[in-house]
Design a protein that fits this description.
Blueprint (H helix, E strand, L loop, with lengths): L10 E13 L2 E5 L3 H14 L4 E12 L15 E11 L4 E3 L8 E2 L8 E5 L22 E2 L7 E2 L3 E8 L4 E13 L6 E8 L3 H19 L8 E5 L10 E7 L2 E6 L11 E4 L9 E3 L10 E3 L6 E4 L6 E3 L5 E8 L6 E9 L5 E2 L2 E4 L2 E4 L4 E3 L3 E2 L2 E2 L2 E6 L6 E5 L10
């Protein structure tokens, strides 16, 4: 791994990701998933991680006058290009749960469906010779669009609208939810955006956020993340804070009071302008076709969640406990527990015992993480107050030191 990279991303959100290009002068100008295949291959060479493709949801654009130029207007006989939003993820750290929904699906090439819907990705049919294995990296359940044989469906929730300036149906936002393997049952919510028409596309993005958080918000690990190409600032995303920004690209995290979640979260920028060998970040310059290239420089942000929100824990018949996990280092964790008489609300002093450590109520007690098969599991503790039955509490799974990148 290149010395410039200290962390391996758990997710990689892509905008303007090529799916396939077809031109009259070259029917195989860009085969299905060829660009993602090469990107994944190079990342694996540098990191040892084989990323999977959660989705590649795309729309059609025409351009050029028969060749493969992409700057010409839509014209009969010109190129047909399918591409859009894509998300890669590290399967060692995340499990894609998006496809578990049983909602009706919309095909990859439906250009009439508007608003929020459950959409299939581009089919993986006509790959480069010797590169059919890329199709096995597209998540299921399977679909049979385009070539009539099973290929990964790559399901994602999207919200679409018609863009009159380009005469196309646009997909400005795609949503996927991933179970974080070190914290089973808790999910990371990611919204991949490419904002074009500022008003319409931002409205569609917020529409999708509202719909998905109402439906799935009870199981999110921390507030939702919106990331991608905003073609401007973070306007109209008033319920989010900026966690990373460079030019017109950004990473936003939902405000805690707007998106109550299991864990508190902090973040820090990680990118430091580091690039893998052979890659070029040259915003605004012509592409260099012989190397990995992007006209936007990448942003990397690390999210760290440490402290479940203070909430009443399971209590005895006469005591109510409030549990406050407290950030410490990566070796020992800590907790502060308050006890009150359930009937009167009067604070009571007692002894706290958790995973081999003991202390007093209202005072921080350090303890070793509870583990089972190298996965942290909830720690159960007790509080004993004179003349009261012993009360129990539980500190939720604390995935530290495994932040999301």
């Amino acid at each position: 791994m290149d010395e410039g990279f200290k962390e391996i991303p758990d997710v990689i959100a892509l905008q303007e990701a090529p799916g396939w290009w077809w031109c009259p002068t070259d029917w195989n100008a860009l085969r299905d998933y060829a660009a993602l295949d090469r990107l994944i291959s190079n990342i694996r060479t540098e990191t040892g991680v084989l990323y999977r493709i959660a989705y590649l949801v795309a729309t059609y654009e025409g351009g050029g006058e028969g060749g493969c130029g992409i700057n010409g207007g839509t014209a009969t006989g010109g190129c047909k290009m399918w591409g859009g939003l894509a998300m890669l993820y590290n399967p060692n750290r995340l499990r894609n749960a998006t496809g578990e929904a049983q909602d009706p699906q919309t095909s990859h090439d439906d250009l009439l469906r508007m608003g929020v819907h459950f959409r299939r990705s581009l089919p993986c049919c006509n790959t480069e010779d010797g590169h059919a294995a890329v199709c096995g990296l597209v998540d299921g359940p399977n679909q049979t669009d385009k070539c009539g044989r099973p290929t990964g469906g790559g399901l994602a929730w999207v919200s679409t609208y018609y863009e009159p300036a380009k005469s196309v149906t646009d997909i400005p936002v795609a949503f996927a939810r991933f179970e974080f393997r070190p914290s089973p049952g808790r999910y990371v919510h990611l919204y991949n955006v490419h904002i074009h028409n500022q008003e319409a596309s931002r409205m569609r993005a917020n529409e999708l956020i509202q719909a998905m958080e109402q439906r799935f918000g009870q199981t999110r690990l921390f507030p939702p993340v919106v990331l991608g190409d905003f073609n401007g600032g973070e306007e109209q995303f008033d319920d989010f804070d900026v966690a990373g920004w460079l030019s017109i690209d950004g990473i936003l995290i939902g405000k805690r009071d707007k998106f109550p979640s299991a864990f508190n979260v902090s973040w820090r920028r990680e990118d430091a302008q580091a690039l893998p060998p052979g890659a070029v970040c040259n915003e605004g310059a012509p592409p260099i076709l012989s190397v990995l290239w992007s006209d936007h420089c990448a942003i990397m942000t690390s999210f760290q969640w440490l402290n479940p929100r203070p909430a009443p824990g399971p209590s005895g018949p006469e005591l109510t406990l409030t549990v406050f996990p407290v950030q410490t280092n990566g070796i020992r964790l800590s907790v502060r527990v308050n006890a009150r008489d359930r009937a009167t609300g009067v604070k009571k002093d007692g002894t706290v015992v958790i995973h081999g450590a003991s202390g007093k109520t209202g005072v921080i007690v350090e303890y070793l993480p509870c583990k089972e098969q190298n996965i942290r599991v909830p720690c159960t503790g007790t509080v004993t107050v004179e003349h009261y039955p012993t009360a129990t509490f539980e500190v939720g799974v604390d995935p530290y030191p495994s932040p999301l990148h």
